[in-house]
Amino acid sequence: MRGDCTCIELATRLRTMNRVLNCIVPDPPGEAVAETIELTLEAVGRHEMTQAVAVLEEAVQANPFWLRGYLLLGTIYQYEQKVEQAIATTEKGLATCASGLRLFNAQTWRETVEGINDGAVHNRIRKNTERLQQYERMFRHRLATLEIWCGSFDEAIEQLSAIEDEHWA
After folding, report:
1. What distance in Å separates the CA atoms of residue 65 and residue 87, rounded to the nearest whole number?
2. What is the pLDDT of residues 24-82, one digit of tens each?
3. Which has the closest alpha carbon to 77: 20, 8, 22, 142?
4. Which residue has the higher pLDDT, 45 or 118?
5. How far apart are CA 92 and CA 89, in angstroms?
6. What is the 3-state secondary structure (H, E, C) of the chain?
7. Which listed CATH number (1.20.1600.10, 3.40.30.10, 1.25.40.10, 2.40.320.10) goes with 2-168?
8. Domains in the chain: boundaries
9. What are phi and psi of 30, to 5 degrees?
């Protein structure tokens, strides 16, 4: 019976996370994303965590910049009490954010974009940068929580300090 409650709780959490993420950092519309999330939720509902993990791992391997996938996958690992995998997945998501932000902040990229005299292009780049920054904060919070959970307090403080530093920058 405990497993049933855990799966229901996990499915509810994943659905809620997905709805909240749709509001604050919406994914570009796409059938593949919706299908991946639905397949994951169905697998969780059937208590087939291995399948749910496989679906999400395949999705993030196919599209390493699908940041929501890392968050959902890390949540499943956390509920399965596989803390090392949850941390590794969260770190991959954080590294992906960092590489995206480095790309948008690269001098040659900025010079190229500044040469484009189109407000829509500048607006889209700004929105993508803000999206990556929001995900970066989410990954850092998740990583800090996981590190506290496993007793790595110095690492947790480091993540929380990075969030605070970014906030004041």
Report:
1. 18
2. 998 877 888 999 999 999 999 999 999 999 999 999 999 999 999 999 999 999 999 99
3. 142
4. 45
5. 5
6. CHHHHHHHHHHHHHHHHHHHHHHHCCCCCCHHHHHHHHHHHHHHHCCCHHHHHHHHHHHHHHCCCCHHHHHHHHHHHHHCCCHHHHHHHHHHHHHHHHHHHHHHHCHHHHHHHHCCCCHHHHHHHHHHHHHHHHHHHHHHHHHHHHHHHCCCHHHHHHHHHHHHHHHHC
7. 1.25.40.10
8. 2-168
9. -170, 140
Q: For residue 133, give every residue at least 6 positions away whose Cβ sits within 8 Å of its Cβ, in sequence order, or none.
A: 97, 101, 166
The amino acid at residue 50 is T
**Joined tokens for residue 36:** 């991946």
Q: Are 71 and 138 in contact (CB under 8 A)?
A: yes
How long, in residues, is the chain? 169
